[in-house]
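A reminder from the course coordinator: this example appears on the midterm review sheet, so study it carefully.

Given structure:
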């Protein structure tokens, strides 16, 4: 008995030869005739596939009805892809004007800190919360929660304001968001 983990154990060359001859006799007894394409398939399957494809292409070219069923490709016209011109630029500025009236939320962040719930519950009127930001340090200007600039506080006629001192580049924004 052979080990199922080693299927080739105990099989000799004679066993393989007998199995192959049995397979050949079974194939011959079905009545299938051996053609040149089948003998080529036994020798080189790629050559047989190429010969089969050539035969199919020849039969397709002989039948005009088969070629009429397949759609013929045609170049894309101007109605599919509009040509680029000066009128496209005018359309883009019009689109930009449409978004100019969309409101955004501007926030100036003085600083941040972390508190425990116990510290939060202990807060009362007059409590002082220490922030991470230093005095005189530029403050973050956020648009819809995204850092876009930094600035300094100014007072104009009894009202606070902020003077933009630096516009943040996209790479700097990512760096500052990670802190």
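Designed residues:
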């Amino acid at each position: 008995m052979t080990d199922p983990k080693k299927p080739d154990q105990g099989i000799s060359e004679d066993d393989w030869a007998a199995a192959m001859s049995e397979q050949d006799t079974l194939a011959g007894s079905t009545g299938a005739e051996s053609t040149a394409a089948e003998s080529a398939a036994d020798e080189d399957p790629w050559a047989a596939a190429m010969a089969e494809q050539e035969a199919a292409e020849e039969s397709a070219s002989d039948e005009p009805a088969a070629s009429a069923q397949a759609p013929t490709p045609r170049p894309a016209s101007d109605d599919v892809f509009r040509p680029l011109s000066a009128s496209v630029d005018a359309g883009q500025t019009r689109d930009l004007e449409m978004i100019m009236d969309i409101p955004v939320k501007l926030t100036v962040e003085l600083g941040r800190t972390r508190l425990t719930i116990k510290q939060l519950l202990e807060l009362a009127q007059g409590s002082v919360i220490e922030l991470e930001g230093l005095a005189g340090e530029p403050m973050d200007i956020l648009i819809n929660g995204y850092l876009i600039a930094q600035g300094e506080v100014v007072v104009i006629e009894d009202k606070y304001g902020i003077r933009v001192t630096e516009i943040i580049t996209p790479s700097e924004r990512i760096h500052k968001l990670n802190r």
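The longest strand covers residues 146-156. Strands lie at 106-109, 139-143, 146-156, 159-167.
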